[in-house]
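Changelog excerpt

This revision adds worked examples to the README so contributors can see how folded entries look when concatenated. The first example is reproduced verbatim below.
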Amino acid sequence: MAQTQGAYYVPHGSHWPIVGSFGLLGAVGGAGLWLNEVMVGKPIMAVGIGLLVVMLFGWFGSVIRESLAGYYNKQVDVSFRMGMIWFIFSEVMFFAAFFGALFYARTFSVPWLGGEGHGALTNFYLWPQYSAAWPTNGPQDIGGAFSTMSPWGIPLLNTLLLLSSGVTITIAHHALRTGHRARLLVFLALTVILGAVFLGFQVHEYAEAYEHFNLTLGSGIYGSTFFMLTGFHGLHVTLGAIMLTVMWARCAKGHFTRDNHFAFEAVAWYWHFVDVVWLGLFLFVYVL
């Protein structure tokens, strides 16, 4: 039975953390076994991912029911906001690591391999034919010749799509705060659609990269950083679109009020974060 201590809501015991723990263990452990060509790895990973999905639906469902029951007050709301802020900060650090790898490779590793500074001996003895040019696929063209993706085609279009989605979700948020339900649902749906179109264009771009430009994960440091950065961003867009879809369903059911809708705000924060990361990607991966 739920209890309260003072003014702060203390939830009852839940089995979802242990379900999530087993799900993570199965997903990561199974993936490791699969990569090492152990036959049972793939089904174990599938079961682990399934447990994680069940845990997400069950745990978030419990939180939604508690919120609708009126258990949460201002203190709980502050806790949720602080938690979301720290979560987004962890995501910032996640992408900072990949941007840092890209910066280090371009600014230090490539010039050193080309003979600049401390890399003179390395270049002379190991890779005397290496040209310190970016993008690179490694000494002696280890990754094979490839072409880069032009920033003024699909990447520019995707930039416009995400910037537009930032506008539509802001309009939806304003509609929620002013009580315009129809406008809220329309612009929130538009945000989901823009995100889905973005992902469709990214899939098409990947197909073009592999089939026509020979740009793959094996195309040296450029190929690996390109697909790691854009791929993880695409994963975040996918998760954001799923969360926005859930928010649309909750809005349609009337779960939120003008003054009590932090779940919507949290997803909006996340979506704006995804937009900002893409601007960095477009500039440092595609343009420069």
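The second example, added in the same revision:
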Amino acid sequence: MSSGDASQAVALLAGLELLTAVLLAWRGPASSPRGPLAVQGFALAGLVAVIGVAEGEPVLWLVALLVGVLKGVVLPTLVVRRPSRAAGPAAPPAADRPATVRPVVRPAVVRGRSRVPLLLGAAGLVVVAYLAARPVTRVVTGATGQALPVGFALVLVGFALLATGRRSQSQLVGFLVLDNGIATTAFLATGGVPLVVELGVSLDVLLVVLVLQVLGSRIDTAFGAGAPGGTDLDQLRELHD
């Protein structure tokens, strides 16, 4: 693969990662983040594979396979998966219930908000990332230097999603975008990360996501009432009062 072809492939895959991050910032609370997260993970795996071909490092193909399986399949599935709720005691038959007692059904209320400020904020963070990464792009040479600002942009968008997420699932999504941004920056800046290092980091991220998913699922079971995307954090703040 020539240097020009590698540069175009890296730019295309990095742009796909950035597009999915913007889509995750744009999505509503009821929409599933699994598709954009999976596309982002596979784009990162493809980026690592292209770097491996351009640099002549076959070990990066194994790293790309690990990234594709973990960030493209396992982690997006864990984020959207919700364990089934434990079945409560069986309700008595209608004939045995007193006539004055009626079950109260409280439907889940999804409080939405405009996605335009989030989209404009993400666009502003992308501009800030490109301005901040300009000195670094002058140092990094090769096919990866021009796409390095995308890694900075993913990190900033991930931080923004973490800071503004009102539901447990949204904050998990922000954490994964942040992790993908850090991984993208590392691969683009160094021309590849050793397999042992990537394996250790990936296992740490997997453990963190598992712990947060279990914690979020228990909170949802207690307070979420089946709301899409998990419990609204504003409801938990009301419990403090």
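Reviewer comment on example two: The chain has eight helices and no strands. Confidence is low (pLDDT under 50) at residues 83-91, 100-112.
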